[in-house]
Write a structure and sequence with these properties.
By secondary structure, this protein is mainly alpha-helical. The chain contains five helices and no strands. Helix 1 (9-35) runs antiparallel to helix 4 (55-83) and helix 4 (55-83) packs antiparallel against helix 5.
């Protein structure tokens, strides 16, 4: 019996590779932005809240959240699919990992929005 999927596995792996490479660059940019600030200052509450009001920094944080979530949950999905091979298992694992990914992104975005005072 043939399983119908929205994307072929090769396309999903391309997404996995692209999100991994993009995450490396965005996290490197995030680290470079943190290195120009003294460590003690970077831990102060007022400084952290001020960062959330900086649109460029918020976009970097949101992109890190999305890239790492997509990459991480897809990696977990790939590992779980290696444990068993059946269409029911594949569908269940896919639904659970996508749901968890959406939940994590929604919660992280909520945190960014609340810290920004919106």
């Amino acid at each position: 019996m043939e399983s119908r999927t929205l994307l072929k596995e090769s396309q999903i792996m391309k997404i996995h590779y692209i999100t991994g490479i993009a995450a490396i660059f965005v996290v490197a940019l995030h680290i470079m932005m943190r290195l120009v600030v003294p460590f003690e200052l970077s831990l102060e509450y007022d400084y952290i809240i001020a960062n959330y009001k900086n649109l460029v920094y918020v976009l970097i944080l949101e992109s890190i959240l999305v890239l790492i979530s997509v990459h991480g949950f897809n990696g977990i999905r790939i590992i779980l699919l290696e444990l068993r091979q059946s269409s029911a298992w594949e569908n269940m694992v896919t639904v659970v990992t996508i749901s968890a990914m959406i939940g994590l992104i929604a919660y992280g975005t909520r945190t960014i929005i609340l810290a920004n005072g919106l």
